[in-house]
């Protein structure tokens, strides 16, 4: 029975950055770094932190730290990088603690970790990581071959419909001429 209790606590707090953990941004643009958390028993004085190139202060840098008193209150800022803006909300359905990194530079490429600590769950901690790639320009896929194939297939279908229509008209004319004799 004690093992079951540990199992329940281990899955009480969960942090997610969405379906994909890779984000691509254009140089000098703003980029959203998504993060949400779920908790089974609620939260009180929850602390969330964003780190760059680390899961904690050692070896990396703190870029945003916030605190949430309760489900009824919005997060408040404890500390942040001036280029980071909080865009989440925790009073609605989702516990969204996403941030926007403004004027992205090539040096901003790397690993961003969203870390959550919940005192209500015996200071349970969990984190999720997202990787940011910064590019000079977005490259569009060349779809010329696709357009050619779609054009050919569409043309063949059109010719088939035209052939069936001509056949139907010819058969109708033949039937009418035979009925007249």
From TrEMBL:
Keywords: Disulfide bond, Glycoprotein, Immunoglobulin domain, Membrane, Signal, Transmembrane, Transmembrane helix. One of its GO terms (molecular function) is sodium channel regulator activity. It comes from Pandion haliaetus. The lineage of its organism: Eukaryota, Metazoa, Chordata, Craniata, Vertebrata. Residues 2-131 form the Ig-like domain. It is a single-pass type I membrane protein. GO terms for biological process: cardiac muscle cell action potential involved in contraction; regulation of ventricular cardiac muscle cell membrane repolarization. Its main location: membrane. This is SCN4B protein.
